[in-house]
Model the fold of this input.
Amino acid sequence: MHIKALVLEGFKSYRDRTELGFHEGANLVVGRNGSGKSNVFDAIQFVVSDKYSILRKEIRRRLLHEGASVEAGALSAYVEIIFDNSDGRFPVEGSEVSLKRVIGTKKDEFFLDGKHVTRSDAESLLETAGLSRSNPYNIVVQGKVNALIRMKPKDRLELFKEIAGTKVYEERRAEALKILKDAGVSRQRIQEILDELSKDLQDLGEEKAELLKFQDLDKERRAIEYAVFDKELRTAAEKLQENEDQRLHTSNLIEKFQAELQTVSESREALENSIYSLQRDIEISTARRDALKSEMQDLAKSRASVEYDLERQNARVDEIEGCEEARAAACNALETEIEALNKELRVLTPESDSCNEKESSIRIQIDKNQQRLSELLAKQSRQGQFSSASERNAHLKKELSSRKQTLHKNIELQNSLEKEIEEIGKNIQAMQSEISEKSSQFAVKEKDWEMTASKESELVKKRNSLMDSRKYGRLVL
Done:
């Protein structure tokens, strides 16, 4: 087996594709300085050694052909070695084997006879042919021969052992001896452990005898405890049955009380809702009553204003009896205002009566509902309140007297409200009578005004006739 040909392209100083042929035996590469002789050696190391197994960015840049400018530089490079396989060192078919490595700015690939393979497959193939990466003497670099010649015999022997592969076996022998030594130490330690275990087994035999004796006594103890526990269990079961019967009886009573409590709660809720609605009606009625009172006060003020205006008009009538048009306008204004007051009075009177009636009915309903609510609350709390019938009767009498007092107070309140309503009605009647009286006085005054107006017109006619007669008399003279 030997290198038959070397093909380079884009690798270091070889920009274009370059193929170098080799022969079996010694081959020499001769050239001037800088012609790329060392690059041929680097190309062979690039494929078959581990010198370029890890390619950093800077190493890739140095391996790629740079060129005179950035545009002239290569973006990828490859090195292909063609081996002569006539002796069958490579386990592949054919007399030639081609191994190619391609690199770029980011890629690094291997090809075997034009087919893509992984790095591990390529390394395995080279190791099969005897080109192991762990043997650094497959490729001897410049200056290494002189170092080998100057070696001491002992160092040279170690080198031959390393090249021949015997050093590996010596290392394995040293490792085996170390393992044997460790095994002897472990055997001695195991023997010590066995002695300790024998002593422990003797102690365990004694403890076993004690344990058997303890187990017999424990069986007897458990039998006695079982008998005692069985008796206590039967007693507890009887007590449990009694407690269960008592619990069922108590549960029935609780369910009964809860049903009654639910009924009372529902009734209470209904009464509270009714009381709430009635209170709202009372508030509305109270507000309406206050509004009616304020309207009545406004009517009273209007009446006083009308009286004041009437007095002013009377005084004005006395002063301006000769002004018929002013009297007529004042009369019309007073009539309009009186008529408006009468209309308002007619509207407010039935409304006030209806509000009073509604208020009295609402108060009666509230009293009934409050009485019913207090009865239900008393019934609700009465179940666990009294310890005897006499105590309950005394409480009922006391509650009856308090309810009578409350009823008496409600009756007094109702009477006071009725009196207040009666006084309001009397005031309204007084206002009505006063308005009717003012109306009659106004009618009398109106008749007086009409008579005065007629007299005034007659006097004016008489004055005009006298003036005419006087005028004619002067003309006759």
